[in-house]
Amino acid sequence: MLQYSLRRILSMIPLLLLISLVVFSLAKMMPGDPFAGEIDPSNTNPKYIEEMREKLGYNDPILVQYGRWITKFVQGDFGKSTVYKKPAAELIADRIPNTLLLAITALVLTYVISFFMGMYAGRKPYTIGDNLIAGYNYIALAIPSFVAAILAIYFFSFQLNWFPFSGSVKIGLEEGTMEYYLSKMHHVLLPALVLGLMSSASYTQFLRNDIIENSRKDFVRTARAKGTKESKIYNKHILRNSVIPLVTFLGFDIAALISGAVITETIFTYPGIGQLFLESVTRRDYAVMMSITMLLSFLSLFGNLIADLVYGLVDPRIRLD
């Protein structure tokens, strides 16, 4: 497994280089001026602007600019934000804890909700409960996340006043105190519930269908013929085989939740990577945009590796050589 992991990690390098070339090229082709923020706004003389562009290397051929950018990027220099006048790495590092808290909380809620609903629907198919769960799944799949976020804010923040509708922590609390951490959890619960409830629909349906399919296989019939308890058949034989498809998604989930939180974080004005990414696109802050895109690309590739490794641990029949 170690050799397999090393081979997969090495194979990520050319993929990331190709992704970086595509990302850099797309940033250059986007309309607008991504570098206006680096020019002194008090001096709009065209000659001065052209001199600054020449000095900063913006008039060089695109391959030369790419080589300079990727060389600095590999060395840990992600560039400077033209909006905040700060290094992009510093901005991203400030937002990552909030986004990770949101993603992990949403991930836990997704798997807990989908596990219990999928188990119930799979063990009691075509009942009223199964039909209600199926109805919820279809509604969750049909409703866009931004609509669900707006409805959640309206009912749970404005009408019931259960959750705050913006920010990541209550203003004035001292960092490191118990009140501070409780406030962060209070602020993250509503957006995490929106992401978790929307994501659990597909997983619930996958688990339900796999449980029904596995319950009809020969090894289950053999276990029933031997007089094995029904609870043991479901928990040991059926469930173990049914969770394998869900495990394959595990590695992608954090990257998917981080990228999928762009709209949710924006609606909740939650200061995370998603909100920062959308802001960097709209305000032409390409150093930040390219850095976040590369981060999400790496997470997707790394998530694929984690999914394969976990898949091999869950199913002993699979060997990673």
What is this structure, in a nutshell?
This protein is mainly α and 321 residues long. It is 74% helix and 0% strand.
CATH-defined architecture of the domain at 92-274: Orthogonal Bundle
The tally of strands reads 0
How confident overall, as mean pLDDT? Answer: 79
Here the CATH topology of the domain at 92-274 equals: MetI-like fold
User: Which percent band covers the strand fraction?
Assistant: under 5%
The total of helices stands at 12
| CATH classification class of the domain at 92-274 | Mainly Alpha
H/E series, N to C?
Answer: HHHHHHHHHHHH
The name of the CATH superfamily of the domain at 92-274 reads MetI-like
Protein name: ABC transporter permease
Membrane topology: Multi-pass membrane protein
Domain ABC transmembrane type-1: 96-307
Family: Belongs to the binding-protein-dependent transport system permease family.
Structural account:
- This protein is an all-alpha fold and 321 residues long.
- It has a domain at 92-274: MetI-like fold.
- It contains 12 helices and no strands.
- Helix 5 (128-142) crosses helix 7, helix 10 runs antiparallel to helix 12 and helix 11 (273-282) runs antiparallel to helix 12.
- The longest helix is centred in the middle third of the chain and has 37 residues, at 178-214.
- It is globular and about 85 Å long.
